[in-house]
Amino acid sequence: MTTLDVxxxxxxxxxxxxxxxxxxxxxxxxxALWLVVSFGALAGGYLMLTxxxxxxxxxxxxxxxxxxxxxxxxxxTRAPIGRSADLDSGNRWAAxxxxxxxxxxxxxxxxxxxxxxxxPLDVAGQGAAKPLGESVFRIWVLPFxxxxxxxxxxxxxxxxxxxxxx
Amino acid sequence: MNTYFHDYLVVFVxxxxxxxxxxxxxxxxxxxxxxxxxxxKLTTYECGVDPVGEGWAQSYVRYYVFAYLYVVFAxxxxxxxxxxxxxxxxxxxxxxxxxxxxxxxFLAAGLAYAAKKKVLSWV
Amino acid sequence: xxxxxxxxxxxxxxxxxxxxxxGQLGPMLLVFGVAVLGVLVEALVGRGWRQFIQVPLTFxxxxxxxxxxxxxxxxDKPLHxxxxxxxxxxxxxxxxxxxxxxLALVSLLLIADRQNGAFxxxxxxxxxxxxxxxxxxSGTVQSELYPLMLFAVGGMMLFTAAxxxxxxxxxLEVMSLPLYIMCGLARRRRLLSQEAAVKxxxxxxFSSAFFLYGTAxxxxxxxxxxxxxxxxxxxxxxxxxxxxxxxIALLSVGLLFKLGAVPFQAWKPDVYQGAPTPVTALMASxxxxxxxxxxxxxxxxxxxNMSWDWRPMMWGxxxxxxxxxxxIAITQTDLKRMLAYSSIAHAGFxxxxxxxTSQAGLSGTLFYLAAYGFTTIGAFAVITMVRDAGGEAGHLxxxxxxxxxxxxxxxxxxxxxxAFAGIPxxxxxxxxxxxxxxAIDGGATPLVVVGVISSAIAAFFYLRVIVVMFFxxxxxxxxxxxxxxxxxxxxxxxxxxxxxxxxxxxxMLDVAGQAASHLFxx
Lengths: 166, 123, 522
Known about the structure:
With 166 residues, chain A is mostly helical. Chain A has helices at 3-24, 28-48, 52-76, 92-114, 129-136, 141-162.
């Protein structure tokens, strides 16, 4: 194991640990903040795999925008600041069983599927913005344009559902 | 690929350095300053006025639209980076240039709609 | 496993500019373009004028796209892969897109009918608050409805045409998101409507995650998300089996959810009941066509070599869907819920056509979709007409004796129900016959037996509604039948098509057969 492998594994442990804290913490706002740690560790993982553009997208969109959205969502509710006593549901053991089973299946599939698969990490600049741009603006042009339609539809929808004035 | 990790090692060291400066400053301050808390000192500072109510206020749904606009433009920005690296290349040219403006144009329509519905104005 | 296959496909010496076939993508681009125009109308036009501009604009956009599709279908041999391989423009796709557009036009009649007042004037107003009363008094409507509908229809068209899983995912989101919002806009019973929207949104987001995870695993298997590349990879046995099987399973969950197949049907009754009835009509017809279209493409193109692996699973799903839909429908007392369960059962019948994996199966499914779409819009249109003081009279007991008060409306509704049941001389019979025959030819006789049994079970509850309408005494304070021109037109169209496709199905069967003759492009 090289240093890089160790760093990668440590980032993975941080990501999983923070994800567990997201669902076990008794404070809603802390859950959102632990999500930042989890997403951040994932971004680090992408970096270690030389997918640098994806890593920064993760930071910009998930750590930045999505968590902000989440915090605004929490602030819309009447959730109390600090500890909430009623965050636990009676179904949590069932939920735990389902989560463990799902994780078991997916881990098994991925391990069995990719055990002997190796992708070279030493191609210079393969995860940078340019090769991604080349394929987005050549092969995925139509989905890319439709994405703007999706964002527009979501924007219009959000305004329809929230605004007071007509 | 060593240059790649080397570059990011520099970034990482810089981040650590930044964190060290902040932590060092605050920690040094803590060690050097006297520490005599009173009730008044511990209240939240609110422009010199006595704070009213709790620290938590339910926010309006209209702020949610601001947050959502931020997401939209973050996604938009994310596509601008790869686009900026390729649109001048051989084999892309005006088509790709135009495509990005179509993308931006659609979002601009959404922004115009939001502005017209007074979602963007501060109330 | 080629981690960078997508990147590698960009050839080094390739200096052709990226190319979009505007002619072949025209119908979709037109719908999206008109939708954006609609948003601009919302932004720039005064409140009083919006409705008068939006409705003709939306009509023109949908009709224009339909004409374009007719031209494409008649003019050249449609068998292309367009937009750098992201979209397949072939005869089945054009048929499905045309069906979606026509059904959307009929649904638009219901949505645009202001007199039936299905939509809330202000979605953000709390139910029962002063703001809500003010909104109703002002008589305004949220005319953003029309652009949202166009976004959804455009997404549906792309969903059926997508030739790779990534485009399909984007289309799935474009089609679902506006529908989530439209579900929450009912005027009456606001809380039920909002509950429907939230349920649909949460479950839909969950199923999208399944779809995406399946896509990722299939990409891991084949090194590409292109349907044809996945087919090639399965043909060569190129990758690792667990990834492929898990990928198929997760992808199927995403698709079957949109279809409303058991065990992913839980959203359907709640959403169909809570949503404004015109939106329910849109979902029950157009969304179903889109979902079946995408399912057909995935299973016929990408997974055709794997049919031995997915068939047993799909058999199980189809059998469960037909039986559960038909049996639970018997216990329903709300008409919209009952039609939702009926729609679940019909999804099961459609799946038998998918399982046939043959040209006959494809053409039968295409015909079934067109026939069922018209019938179901007609049925929901009748439901919007039968009204109490508090809106639609959804409860079955309120429909008692309707046949004596308004024999025409009750008769037409009874006719739609008979078409659902698959009585001869209705389009439902022809459609069921077509898919069942294809399934038998494909060696799925037990499936057809289950299908016939569940049709018989289903016929029981359709007949129960007919008996309630015609053979019980009307209550003194029974609901009134309110006839408006657009809604009546939608009912008439639905009834006409149901009759014509039942009595003279051959021309339409020929069109569907011709569309299916080349299967999908790859």
